[in-house]
Amino acid sequence: MKNIDTAFGHVRSFTMLVILGSIIICCYTLYKSFTSITLMQDKVYILVNGKALEAYSSDRKDNVPVEARDHVKTFHGFFFTLDPDDKVIKTNITKALYLADDTAKRVYDNLKENGYYSGIISGNISQRISIDSITIDTNQYPYDFKCYAKQNIIRTTSILNRNLITEGTLRNVSRSDNNPHGFLIERWNTIENKDLGVENRK
Questions:
Q1: C-alpha distances in angstroms, 51 versus 55, 166, 180?
Q2: Which residues make Cβ contacts (< 8 Å) with residue 160, sequence separation at least 6?
């Protein structure tokens, strides 16, 4: 009887250890499975020119400065890149106006009324912009920005270089095909737009 009681105690202890070990293994397996699933959901594969590229998803707040700068750059690129073609001008301005509020529309209307775009077409003038830097203040919402850029106004015989500084705020809006960054430029204002010099074209 003594041996039977001792053997039963050993079997019971061993059984408890096996059950406890099984529970620990199951919990660890579930934890690792959920961790792996979460990591896999953060990965996106993009097919570019027949090659699969791996991308990672992240919260919007992590990308606000990058997306905000690109939004401002895209807007200025569309608004200030002009060629002596009415269709090109309308296409670029339309794209730009999707990214800003009525302050940009008022600037466009004023330039149009003053014959600026007609002068570009009749004078065979092209206009280009290169962004030097963009500062974004993400510590307060809506986000304040300043854009520092150079304009090149290309005429038949010369190139006029101008310094351009603008400012405004960025407000969050829904993303769309016309506004992929999900920002809207408000209170857009030109601080400086002065001539730097003229280069003769060869």
A1: 13, 40, 24
A2: 151, 152, 153, 195, 197, 198
Predicted model pTM = 0.69
For each of the chain's 202 residues, which pLDDT tens digit applies? 557 777 777 788 888 888 999 999 999 998 888 887 766 666 666 666 666 666 655 555 667 888 999 999 999 999 999 999 999 999 999 999 999 999 999 999 999 999 999 999 998 999 999 999 999 998 888 899 999 999 999 998 899 999 999 999 999 998 888 998 889 999 999 999 898 888 887 7
Sign of torsion over alpha carbons 50, 55, 60, 64: negative
- Long-range contact pairs involving 16-25 (C-beta distance under 8 Å, separation at least 24): none
Token code pair at residue 197? 């010099």
